[in-house]
């Protein structure tokens, strides 16, 4: 008959460490007020939308062409680009921050 093998925990005593200081009475902290997000100006909102358009690969690559050209190319291929992007670009058609993509400063 083979001797019954026990678990390793049967061989060693369990030693629990005593807590220092005993129980603490914690007072509940007041709930944190959610800080309001900063209000964005219309320009910042527009530039955010244009940045989303630049980062959306569904409308094709955007390096080397203007946002309006990319929008028109996507529309030509039936990719349904958002109309608001075209409206934003046409509204501010002289400002390169509006007309050119995020990668305008990087050479091809």
UniProtKB/TrEMBL annotation:
Lineage top rank: taxon: Eukaryota
One GO process term, biological-process aspect: DNA synthesis involved in DNA repair
Annotated stretches, region: Disordered: 1-43
Composition bias, Pro residues: 28-38
One Pfam family, short name: DNA_pol_delta_4
GO cellular component: delta DNA polymerase complex
InterPro entries (UniProt xref): DNA_pol_delta_4
GO MF annotation list: DNA-directed DNA polymerase activity
Composition bias, Basic residues: 14-26
UniProt xrefs under PANTHER family: DNA POLYMERASE DELTA SUBUNIT 4 (PTHR14303:SF0)
The protein's name: DNA polymerase delta subunit 4
Phylogenetic classification of the source organism: Eukaryota, Metazoa, Chordata, Craniata, Vertebrata
């Amino acid at each position: 008959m083979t001797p019954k093998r026990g678990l390793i925990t049967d061989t060693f005593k369990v030693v629990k460490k005593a807590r220092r200081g005993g129980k603490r009475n914690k007072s509940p902290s007041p709930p944190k007020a959610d800080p309001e997000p900063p209000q964005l100006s219309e320009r910042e909102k527009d530039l955010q939308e244009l940045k989303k358009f630049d980062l959306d690969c569904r409308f094709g690559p955007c390096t080397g062409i203007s946002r309006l050209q990319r929008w028109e190319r996507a529309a030509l291929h039936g990719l349904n680009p958002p109309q608001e992007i075209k409206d934003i670009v046409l509204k501010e058609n002289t400002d390169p921050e509006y007309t050119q993509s995020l990668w305008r400063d990087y050479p091809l």
